[in-house]
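Spindle assembly abnormal protein 6 homolog
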Amino acid sequence: MSQVLFQQLVPLQVKCRDCEERRVSVRVSIELQSVSNPVHRKDLVIRLTDDTDPFFLYNLVISEEDFQSLKFQQGLLVDFLAFPQKFIDLLQQCTQEQAKETPRFLLQLVSPAAVLDNSPALLNVVETNPFKHLTHLSLKLLPGNDVEIKKFLAGCLKCSKEEKLSLTQSLEDVTRQLNFTQKTLSEKIQELDKLRNEWAAHTAALSSKHSQELTSEKEKALQAQVLHQQQHEQQKKDLEALHQRGVQQLQSRLSELEAANKDLTERRYKGDSAVRELKAKLSGVEEELQRAKQEVLSLRRENTALDAECHEKEKHVNQLQTKVAVLEQEIKDKDQLVLRTKEAFDTIQEQKVVLEENGEKNQVQLGKLEATIKSLSAELLKANEIIKKLQGDLKTLMGKLKLKNTVTIQQEKLLAEKEEKLQKEQKELQDVGQSLRNKEQEVCKLQEQLEATVQKLEESKQLLKNNEKLITWLNKELTENQLVRRQDVLGPSATPPVRASGGPVRSGLSPSPNPVDGRVAYPACGVGCPGSSAFAFQNTFWHPAAAKSSIHPVSGPKASTFALSSWKT
């Protein structure tokens, strides 16, 4: 039992003694044979053959024992089971490197003889580099003898016969399939001819039916055009009336806004003048406030000085009152002393005789006492006058102080009222400024609305002009189509046949096709209309719903491109 592991053409470099090297392609076969007689073992069979030379045959049978000696001799690192795959990898690398000018791996067959005859040869796998050539593997192959060559040729002949038999069977199968296919092809050709005839008849019927339908559709389109034209005239009148009313309303609104703007401007000027007056008043009031504050400060300082002076006067008055009380007490004491003296004098008078010796002394003492009493009475009178004068000055100062306090309180009240009034005027000034700014913003918004309304009015006028151009173009096309229909009725052979692909009805009136988007451009209205179908004429009329949806003004690019999208419905 054998298992083929590898069988391919491999480039081989043949070297013989005293001969030039040559390169050939040989078939390398690697088989793994299982032998069970007398013991179970596996042998690796390597065979070299040449497809162009049937007598070229080299064999090598490697058993496990032979591989061990080979492994020892050449220093191999793989075992017997992995050796076939490694050898196959080396052969594949030789095959891959054959296209290069200097291949890295070479498969060499070296023979010591002058020619490849019955002498053994060495099969070497060599790796080349600029330094040296390394021989990875060297196997000694034996040439096949006559028996082996005959056996090999018999096997090749057997394989060729088997291949010929399979190819003959394949040829018979392909021949049967070809006959069946030709028969089927003839049947399909007959069916195709039949279908072509049916299709031609069907196409002729459809063409006649299409012509009738086209005639009826043209009549319907003519009626629809008249109806649409009437509706468009009515809508045009309604739109003009609507625009006229809108213009009148906008003009009235504009006059109202101008009047309001003028009123607001006058109010603004008045407000500015009032603001200037209030600012002038405010500056005057602030100056008066500063003067009043300075006066209050000076009055407060003067009041403080008067309070100190009054306090000193009160202290002096208290001192004088104390002194007066002391003098009054002394006067009382002197009066008592006088009484006692009078009593003593009476006693002395009664005892005059007894006291004659002391009489002179008593007279002198009495004179002194009387002088003292007189001086004390004068001083007491002076003190009373001074006290009265001081009390009058004190009353005067107290009156002045009360008057100054009253004036200060009144000035403070007046100052508070002026500050409150100033705050109210400032708040009113701010309110007037805010109201003025609001009015200015409102005027700006109204001006923007007016500009937008004027722009919409201009766009509506442009839309009306486009509608008039479209009506003119439709009338022109209607007239041309009526002429075409009359010519069709008078002489069908006078006009070219209508093409199903939507070609021109008349060569003199054909619109210019646009190859970019397949639409037909009419310079009269500047609008592209679809022209890829024979029924395109029916769809070129304006639908009422589209007209109704397009009377409203639009902004931006929608105003310049008229809303004809409803034509495609």
